[in-house]
Specification:
Number of helices: 0
Mean pLDDT: 96
Radius of gyration: 13 Å
Length: 115
């Protein structure tokens, strides 16, 4: 079982920055991949950024060049640095961990970007 605790959401004006954190209850080396997803009301949950155990990353086209995902193995934490935020980035952001065949989700954190 993996528990994920997210933090760092909030309200920011367009052009601003936020950093989301996701801390896992297990060592990151035991997790195959971690990612950030976002979901708006009535919409599906979409991938924002993903980082694998080997450090490789991939991003949604809409956030490339603005968001950066990184991992701190010593603190079992994955970060999502979000710069140049736009109103369309407003959503609930969820952290996800893949460990073997199991997927685990955090509780979500709200990000609101005002114009």
């Amino acid at each position: 079982q993996v528990q994920l605790v997210e933090s760092g959401g909030g309200k920011v004006q367009a052009g601003g920055s936020l950093r989301l954190s996701c801390t896992a209850s297990v060592r990151l080396f035991s997790i195959n991949a971690m990612g950030w997803y976002r979901q708006g009301p009535g919409k599906q949950r979409d991938l924002v950024a993903r980082i694998s155990s080997d450090g490789s990353t991939n991003y949604a086209d809409s956030v490339k060049g603005r968001f950066t995902i990184s991992r701190d193995n010593a603190n079992n934490t994955v970060y999502l640095q979000m710069n140049s935020l736009k109103p369309e980035d407003t959503d609930v952001y969820y952290c996800k961990a893949l460990r073997g065949w199991a997927a685990y989700w955090g509780q979500g954190t709200q990000v609101t970007v005002s114009s």
